[in-house]
Amino acid sequence: MKHSITCKYKEVVQLKENKCPKCNGVEFAEGTDFMPIKSLDKKFSIGSNKIYTFCLNCGEVISTRIENPNKFRK
């Protein structure tokens, strides 16, 4: 099954110190797949979305983070 990533932010993120490890590109954007990650301890939790930072030149994902990590605190 093919999933697409929807960009939440219209502006392009310019990372001066970071370059894409695959193509040396310097333009990045952020998006989510709207598939929340859930805690193993809280089965009925809504969870939190994953945010991907990816290269606009080649599509390489250089970062994945949790939108709201506080939902996983005990």
Record keyword descriptors for this entry:
74 residues, mainly beta, disordered N terminus, elongated, five-stranded antiparallel β-sheet, N-terminal domain of TfIIb
Detailed description of the structure:
Helix content is 0%, strand content 30%. By secondary structure, it is an all-beta fold. The protein has one domain (6-63): N-terminal domain of TfIIb, CATH 2.20.25. Strands 1, 2, 3, 4 and 5 form a 5-stranded antiparallel β-sheet that branches. It is elongated.
Secondary structure: elements and pairs:
Layout: E1 6-7, E2 13-14, E3 27-32, E4 50-55, E5 61-66
Brief write-up:
The chain has 74 residues and is an all-beta fold. It has strands at 6-7, 13-14, 27-32, 50-55, 61-66.
* CATH architectural grouping: Single Sheet
Q: How many separate helices?
A: 0
* Head-to-tail CA distance between termini: 34 Å
Number of spatially distinct domains:
1
The name of the CATH topology is: N-terminal domain of TfIIb
Give the overall form. Answer: elongated
Query: What's the total number of strands?
Result: 5
Main sheet record: 5 strands, antiparallel
Question: H/E element string?
Answer: EEEEE
Strand content bin = 25-35%
- The parts where pLDDT drops under 50 for at least 5 residues are 1-6
- Taking all residues together, what is the mean pLDDT? 80
Instruction: Supply Rg.
Output: 14 Å
CATH class placement: Mainly Beta
Instruction: Determine the fraction of residues in helical runs and give it as a percent range.
Output: under 10%
Helix-and-strand structural type: mainly beta
